[in-house]
Design brief:
It is built from 12 helices and 12 strands. It is of the alpha/beta class. The strands form 2 sheets. Strands 5-2-1-6-7-8-11-12 form an 8-stranded mixed beta sheet. A 4-stranded mixed beta sheet has the order 4-3-10-9. Bound molecules: nicotinamide-adenine-dinucleotide. Nicotinamide-adenine-dinucleotide binds next to helix 1 and strand 9.
């Protein structure tokens, strides 16, 4: 399959590497000049589940990529999605599938401004990754990657992508309700990422605080309220149990938003708690936790001088 990775940071390089190794024809696309130069000069150095490898893989800025593709995986941060879509219009044909595995809410709506619904594939992944230096990344996990077509009648094309991902060791799974999975993952990020960032603690420390149950209930209830208006049924108690089980598994880990602030990078808060606060306000609902958390994370970005 001819594949482009639009946004080739930690996850983009991980997915691109796995699919290229399995014989697909992969092109990485990015804007970061030092990273592009390093990969063009010495290849991509990547450690997957502890095993280091180096491969030659094409990479360029959007304007330098002239081909069209069967599938484009988007791996920008949420706030970079619209800019990337603008820049890659010329590589999309009327049949190119666009797969979006970003954290956060509202991305399907943004993508639908650029391509027909039949080509939009939304999903979530539990693979994790990090950037060690320009041209050097790591990638960890065993999946799954759950995806579903935005137009549920277009299952066939999505099944081909699921198979390609599984053949590539990424553990692709066809989801019957990716909307629910996306909202539940947003609850993970909207609690653990946001609170660990504000409290400067890891997930284990957060879940040992005295009023963690009250905080989880406050935040998850608001997510559930807004999710319901968008057709996703998030049971509050079940979601809190899921969060606690997830926290138990990951333990003393600092979530990515905490790392973003540490590295002086903008967070995805507007696409998590910020979206819930905004949508609640638009719909005449109350979401005070989401609003306050968003304001505090923005205040933190300001204090750190992040633009
Ligand atoms: P990333 O920050 O590694 O990369 C995103 C973009 O930022 C890339 O285009 C990258 O080149 C660019 N970038 C990164 N550092 C830069 C620097 N110093 N200077 C200039 N540009 C730089 O993002 P990611 O971790 O791959 O995440 C992509 C999406 O996937 C996000 O929505 C994220 O929430 C989600 N996600 C990430 C993980 C993870 O473990 N990393 C897990 C699940 C979901």
């Amino acid at each position: 399959m001819k594949i482009a990775i639009a946004g080739s940071g930690a996850l983009g390089c991980g997915f691109g590497y796995m699919m290229q190794k399995n014989g697909n024809n992969v092109t990485l696309i990015d804007f970061w000049e030092d990273h592009i130069k390093a990969i063009q000069e010495t290849g991509l150095t990547i450690t997957v589940n502890g095993k280091e490898d180096n491969i030659a893989i094409p990479i360029g800025k959007p304007s330098e990529v002239k081909d069209t593709f069967d599938a484009v995986f988007i791996f920008t941060k949420s706030m970079g999605l619209r800019h990337m879509l603008e820049e890659i219009k010329h590589i999309l044909t009327e049949d190119t599938k666009v797969i979006c595995l970003l954290n956060g809410l509202g991305h399907a709506k943004t993508i639908s401004e650029y391509i027909p619904e039949k080509n939009i594939i939304m999903g979530t992944t539990v693979w994790t990754g990090g950037l060690d230096a320009p041209g050097k990344t790591h990638f960890m996990g065993e999946g799954p990657v759950e995806i579903q077509n935005a137009d549920v009648n277009e299952k066939e094309g999505t099944l081909q992508i699921v198979k390609m991902m599984s053949d590539s060791g990424l553990n692709g799974v066809y989801s019957e309700d990716v909307h629910f999975t996306t909202w539940r993952k947003a609850c993970v990020n909207g609690t653990m990422n946001a609170l660990c960032s504000l409290l400067d603690c890891n997930i284990k420390e957060l879940f040992e605080t005295t009023d963690i149950d009250g905080l989880l209930k406050g935040i998850v209830s608001e997510f559930s309220l807004v999710a319901k208006t968008e057709g996703a049924n998030l049971n509050v108690e079940e979601t809190i149990s899921y969060l606690k089980a997830t926290a138990e598994k990951v333990g003393a880990h600092y979530p990515s938003m905490h790392q973003d602030l540490k590295n002086k990078r903008l967070t995805e808060i507007d696409f998590l708690n910020g979206t819930v606060a905004k949508e609640a306000e638009n719909k005449g609902l109350e979401a005070p936790y989401s609003k306050l958390i968003t304001q505090l994370v923005h205040a933190k970005e300001d204090i750190l001088g992040i633009k």
